[in-house]
Design brief:
alpha/beta, single chain, two-stranded parallel sheet, globular, four-stranded mixed sheet, 8 helices
Amino acid sequence: ACHNTTLGGDNYQVSGDYAGYAQSEMERLQPGATAMFLLLCGGDQNPNPRGTVGHAEQYGKALATEVNRVLGSAKPLPLDLKTAFQITELAFAPHTREQFEQESKDENKFKASRAREMLRAYDERRPVRGTPYPVQAIRLSKGLTLLALGGEVVVDYALRAKKEFAGTDLIVAGYSNDVMCYIPSLRVLREGGYEGETSMIYYGQPGKFSEEVEETVFRSIHGVMKQAGVKTR
């Protein structure tokens, strides 16, 4: 549950960051295997320290070593596949045309560009009030379920889901099916900052979400988990 951002924008080499180094190390440790990486709810998690290729190699090797250790005692699970998928709507906080008319004059070119897009939507009588949001549950066995959430999901969602579905081993992944923006929890939304508010400029969204965002996501989570046969605690 961590961004692949060990390397910054000053590095121009093609790289899978720590995940890529982890995959390479796993394939070295397990000849013939194809290593895959699934990013979890790392929307508000960064590597630390970071900034060099050496850091990325170090973290990748550490991750692969631990995966390989766990793999040594792994036991097969009987497949009992059941899936469910929903698209819900996440509402943005209220906004007005006047707000974007003012923002279109901002010296920040990204804010001005976002404002022009929002004004175009107002002109076409389709102001952006929400965004579709995919939620998917994949029950692999009666004891193991993958919960796949769209967007750059912060860690609070994984912690809460594992608490509310404590009866199953649960893997909670972000970045699944679509990435429309950061998905803040109520805590992160109220804190403000990049994930909850200013990142929306660069995603081309009208602004921060309403304070119902977390509960809206969890209503959909409970819906797909129920359809997949996973009970709450």
